[in-house]
Amino acid sequence: MDREGEADGATPDDAATGPTGDDAATAAAGGTGDQEDPDPVELGVQLLARLEHAELPLPEVVDTIETVSTHPATTRAILEEAERRGHINRQGDVVVPAGGRFLSFESEVVTRDGEFNCRRCGASISTGYFMRLEAGEHGPFGSSCIRKVTGRE
């Protein structure tokens, strides 16, 4: 803290209007914040429902979930709800997607040119890939990270 209790370099206006928590991650990832943010649990459940792996170690599933939220309670809620709905089966430290509906790159992934930061790795990208899920749009991702998040790589 520096003068009059303000955080390093922060002004009272920053504290009142600056993004925090998952909102800060969205802003840092290149999100606009112009549209209402989708429910992170629903978005995460829909993301897990679209995984294209035969099975995944739990840490890799958590890595995917962390593109939605890094909050431990939200991560746990996403895993529990996805399992309750039958999208995944947890077998110890392994997650087995139930399969079914995979993400269609032709109709459910859109690209936009601009200045973005990848939501998975944080790299600066000029072309962002966004997933269109029922709960809302999720991204941006770089070309290799979109394949990793969806399970194509």
Fold blueprint:
Layout: H1 12-17, H2 21-28, H3 40-49, E1 56-57, H4 58-65, H5 72-84, E2 88-91, E3 94-97, E4 109-117, E5 124-133, E6 136-141, H6 143-150
Helix pairs in contact: 3-5
In short:
Helices cover 35% and strands 23% of the residues.
How many individual β-strands? Answer: 6
The major sheet is characterized as:
3 strands, antiparallel
Radius of gyration: 17 Å
**CATH fold topology of one domain:** Arc Repressor Mutant, subunit A
Q: Please write the string of helix (H) and strand (E) elements.
A: HHHEHHEEEEEH
CATH class of one domain: Mainly Alpha
Number of DSSP helical runs: 6
Net shape: globular
Describe the strand arrangement of the main beta sheet, using strand numbers: 1-3-2
Structural class estimated from helices and strands = alpha+beta
Q: Can you give the mean pLDDT?
A: 79
Our estimate of the beta-strand percent is 15-25%
Instruction: List unreliable stretches of 5+ residues.
Output: 1-34
Through-space gap between termini: 44 Å
CATH architecture of one domain: Orthogonal Bundle
**What percent of the residues sit in helical stretches (DSSP H or I)?**
25-40%
